[in-house]
């Protein structure tokens, strides 16, 4: 690419760095000094026109930070970050302007629009959507790698919108929308200042957490979030015997039904091992007086383990934005694109 284009890209990166300052505390204390810069631009003024092409250009077993800058546009493609390509960041500048979309349904591991299998992945300011529609499993985002973080993203579908599959994950200021089990899986995840919007018109569950054993240190933790809906919904139902979901300082509108949770056909004996709780939540939907008897209104002592990101060891891996960028050396095959 010509030098002028590269300099223009650096201007956009400076804008990104400015936005990242507001999230500095959320991004942890690990400092990232430099990253390889790759630009995706549908107009042909970047290094690649497709996001998947940019990912494919990263070497297997990559050990360097790679920052894939995606220019505004609607990218109709199915994207996968394979397990052998860690340390990748994919970033737009505004989620509403950078849309990754596909239309697929069926198997939850095959239908996702965007799949993250690698560790140490970061997604920023992206809309990730599956437009297949209601009534079937249609995953927008699958996260199966360890140490993954998402900032300011919009994740949209109906059933199983976010397959939060396995690993330690962090979501900050994200908007997540769906109608049935739209945050599901068995990851250990901390959702901070996220907006959960239910499209359910009955008793659709927001979460379906799949913790299967008390030995598994997994669960969904929602801190300072907001829940809205088009009609009515429940907070969750147990996909796993030891399913664990906790809401803290979360605003719940009247979209949340008084019972709060659904038993998914489990007996009272089976539900004894489920851990569903809330602490100091607000809004008409947060009232606990009519909650199911196996839900917990947590005390200050009980909630303490869920008040920080220590449950996902965040200080060990959440990293701040790079402070400098270097151009990726293009191969002969790259220059033909």
UniProtKB/TrEMBL annotation:
Pathway in which the depicted protein is active: Glycan metabolism; pectin degradation; 2-dehydro-3-deoxy-D-gluconate from pectin: step 1/5
Alphabetized InterPro entries for the sequence: Pectin_lyas_fold, Pectin_lyase_fold/virulence, Pectinesterase_cat
Signal peptide positions on this chain: 1-26
Main location: secreted
Keyword vocabulary terms for this entry: Aspartyl esterase, Cell wall, Glycoprotein, Hydrolase, Secreted, Signal
EC number in record: 3.1.1.11
Domain of life: Eukaryota
Pectinesterase catalytic domain location: 38-314
Gene3D superfamilies: Single-stranded right-handed beta-helix, Pectin lyase-like
GO MF term set: pectinesterase activity
Compartment(s): Secreted, Cell wall
Database matches in Pfam families: Pectinesterase
UniProt keyword annotation of Transferase present: no
PANTHER family: ACYL-COA THIOESTER HYDROLASE YBHC-RELATED, PECTINESTERASE 11-RELATED
Its job: Acts in the modification of cell walls via demethylesterification of cell wall pectin.
Family per record: Belongs to the pectinesterase family.
Protein name: pectinesterase
């Amino acid at each position: 690419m010509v030098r002028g284009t590269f300099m223009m890209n650096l201007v956009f990166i400076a804008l990104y760095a400015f936005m990242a300052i507001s999230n500095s505390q959320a991004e942890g204390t690990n400092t990232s000094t430099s990253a390889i810069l790759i630009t995706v631009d549908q107009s042909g003024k970047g290094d690649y026109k497709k996001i998947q092409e940019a990912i494919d250009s990263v070497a297997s077993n990559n050990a360097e930070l790679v920052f894939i800058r995606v220019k505004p546009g609607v990218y109709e493609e199915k994207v996968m970050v394979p397990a052998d390509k860690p340390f990748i960041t994919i970033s737009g500048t505004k989620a509403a302007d950078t849309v990754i979309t596909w239309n697929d349904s069926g198997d939850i591991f095959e239908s996702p629009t965007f799949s993250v299998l690698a560790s140490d992945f970061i997604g920023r300011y992206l809309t990730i959507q599956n437009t297949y529609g209601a009534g079937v499993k249609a995953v927008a985002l699958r996260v199966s790698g360890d140490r993954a973080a998402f900032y300011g993203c919009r994740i949209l579908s109906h059933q199983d919108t976010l397959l939060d599959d396995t690993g330690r994950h962090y979501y900050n200021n994200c908007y997540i929308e769906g109608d049935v089990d739209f945050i599901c899986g068995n990851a250990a995840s901390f959702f901070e200042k996220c907006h959960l919007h239910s499209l359910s018109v009955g008793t659709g569950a927001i979460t379906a957490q799949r913790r299967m054993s008390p030995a598994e240190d997994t669960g969904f933790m929602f801190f300072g979030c907001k829940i809205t809906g088009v009609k009515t919904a429940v907070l969750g139902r147990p996909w796993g015997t030891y399913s664990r979901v906790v809401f803290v300082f979360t605003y719940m509108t009247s979209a949340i039904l008084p019972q709060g949770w659904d038993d998914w056909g489990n007996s009272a004996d089976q539900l004894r091992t489920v851990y569903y709780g809330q602490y100091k939540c607000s809004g008409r939907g947060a009232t606990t007086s009519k909650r199911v008897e196996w839900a917990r209104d947590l005390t200050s002592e009980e909630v303490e383990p869920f008040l920080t990101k220590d449950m996902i060891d965040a200080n060990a891996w959440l990293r701040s934005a790079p402070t400098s960028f270097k151009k990726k050396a293009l191969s002969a095959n790259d220059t033909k694109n």
